[in-house]
Amino acid sequence: MAMAIELKSSTKTTFYFQNHQSPIPNTAFPPPSRLRKTAYFSGASFSLRTTGFRTVSAVSERKETPPAEPSAPPVRIVAVVGDGSVSPLKCAPWVEVMLHTAQRLKWVDEGFQMLVFTDNLHQSNTVQTLQTELNQADVLVVVAVTKQDSVEWIQANSESIPNIICFDSSPVLVNKLGGSFVHADTRSDFFGKIPGIFRKETNKSVNEVVKTVSEAWKRRNSDDIRFCILVIINAYIKPVQILKNLRAKGFSTLSCMVSNCSPQILNCLLDPGCRKALQCLNNCSPVDQVCNYRCIASYESPTLEAFSLCVLQRHNCIGLDAEVPEKPHVQPMTRFRGEDLSHETAEDLFIGWLGRRDWSWRVVAGQNPAYDQFPCQYQLFYRGKSKGSFWYEPVFQVKTLEGKVVWRRRRYRVKRGKVEGTFFFSVLDNGVVSNESWTIVDVCDDLSWGLFHYHGAARVAGQAYSGAVLVSPDGEYPAEKEMGRLVSALEACGIKEWEMFTVNNSSCRDPPLGIPDGSSLHKMIEVKDD
User: Fold this and answer.
1) Confidence of residue 44 (pLDDT cuts 50, 70, 90)
2) Alpha-carbon span 254 to 112, nearest angstrom
3) Per the omega criterion (within 30 degrees of 0), is the bond before 66 cis?
4) Which of 14, 134, 443, 496 makes the best surface tag, with the fewest CB within 10 Å?
5) Count of alpha carbons within 13 Å of 311, Cβ hemisphere only?
């Protein structure tokens, strides 16, 4: 839903479509670096304080994914984090968060190389290695660095780096974009005012980058930490494929809308709720899924659905596109209760507790910040009346932007994948079709918990996404004895436990549950209460 439609307070209604194209200068890339003696790598790491070797889990990738072109120069990123600093992601160490971010950047592009250092600069070999890397870096990311000696050292050794972004660090450190300094103001944004030396058009583009990165960082989740770095790369180094929708089409968009969807546009503008939805979406970046989906969930209505169905789904007037992500490639579980997993059993695992309870599963926690954080999430899986049909209906609460608490419900058609335990989901969500690939990663034999992973895309809305949901019959975390198995299942998805958002299941009165008459449930497994 990445459109920008502004409604002025005057009697006229003005449409405009944001163009977030930022300057991409010709960057001179340095030659390949020498052998790195001490640094954190995305695949493995040598501690800056010890000599112990530690492996960072890797997730298998699809063999058919084409490798990066050998001739393409890498984008070199250096991250320096405060030694011993703790992140807001369940108090995970910042160094661990940034190491994981380095791995996740490679899921986007193998040429994105990020090395992670702490600011423990008391070892001469560490300092020498860091200096070498800074001399070749395209981007420097500074996180939670506050010690005066570290700040002074970074200032003295980062002058040649064209892009510097500093998060939660000393205010003495300055940010730089495209070779020009960006001075902070008194607001809480990580950088704010742009100095007057910028030309007018550059000022606007930099402000867009500043706004997008600042808002993403404030959300404090792993997706948005990576997103901040990708926005900088996309704006000042090279285009990032998954951010291509930051570049809008312009006048042709308006022409398409007026030619094909005039009645739907008029109805939406005359409807207060639909008009608020457009105003809300207009303030979101096209690739900011959290912002976009919060607007949609807050103001959804038949009028908004008709508008989106015409403008986006039928005519793709905004000219957006997105593909279902391929990485990480997550393997399904292969056995359940001592038997090889079949398609029928896999469907039964989705159906879960339905029949014994009024729902299949309740969501305990989720990884995706846009779709998995809603309170009171119920899952309903069932077999339909037609032969071979299978359906999924999530029911969840939304606290709207106006403070109301409402229930929302979606209906997905589910098809089996080629491999047992994999499925293809499709849904019409407020006028836009989303296609998703789901994997049953693990389900305990007693159905006390399960982990489902998904990749998806709303193509004409320009949204591609991934996530995972931890489910249980009562919405409570698995017992402590299951945590080792759960962490292993998350690692198989390329997810750390600290990335998971705990769902608020405290006030879930009168959810609109129920499934259609004539539906059927389990075929292969028997579900018994404890």
Assistant:
1) very low
2) 36
3) no
4) 14
5) 28
How far, in Å, CA of 242 to CA of 322, rounded?
A: 7
393-402 residue pLDDT tens: 999 999 999 9
Both structure tokens of 222: 């792993």
In the beta sheet, which residues pair with residue 81? 118, 143
Joined together, the tokens standing for residue 6 give 């502004």
CA 184 to centroid of chain Cα atoms: 27
3-state secondary structure of 432: strand
Residues 89, 153 contacting (CB under 8 angstroms): no
pLDDT of 69 over the 60 cut:
no
Contact 4, 229 (CB under 8 A): no
Residue 504, class by beta-carbon neighbours within 10 Å (0-12 exposed, 13-18 middle, 19+ buried)? middle
Specify the residue for token string 């846009």.
370
- Reduced to 3 states (helix: H, G, I; strand: E, B; else coil), residue 222 is helix
Does this model's pTM top 0.90?
A: no
**Helix orientation angle between 222-236 and 94-108, rounded to the nearest 10 degrees:** 50
What span, in angstroms and rounded, lies between the C-alpha atoms of 136 and 229? 17
Provide the pLDDT for residue 457: 94
Q: Give the Cα separation of 38 and 128 in Å (integer).
A: 9
CA distances for 102 relative to 169, 295, 362, 517, angstroms: 20, 30, 32, 49
CA atoms of 77 and 99, how far apart (whole Å): 12
Element (H, E) at 108: helix 94-108
Closest CA to 172 of 202, 196, 195, 149: 149
Per-residue burial over 117-128, b if 16 or more Cβ lie within 10 Å, else e, is bbbbbeeeebbe
Q: How far, rounded to the nearest angstrom, does the alpha carbon of residue 418 sit from its chain's CA centroid?
A: 26
Q: H helices of 426-465, where? A: none
Token pair listed for 398? 């939304």
> What are the beta bridge partners of residue 395?
378, 409
Contact 15, 7 (CB under 8 A): no
Hey, what are 389's tokens?
């049909």
Phi first, then psi, for residue 301 (nearest 5°) are -165, 165
Question: In 3D, which of 437, 384, 386, 451 has the Cα closest to residue 411?
Answer: 384
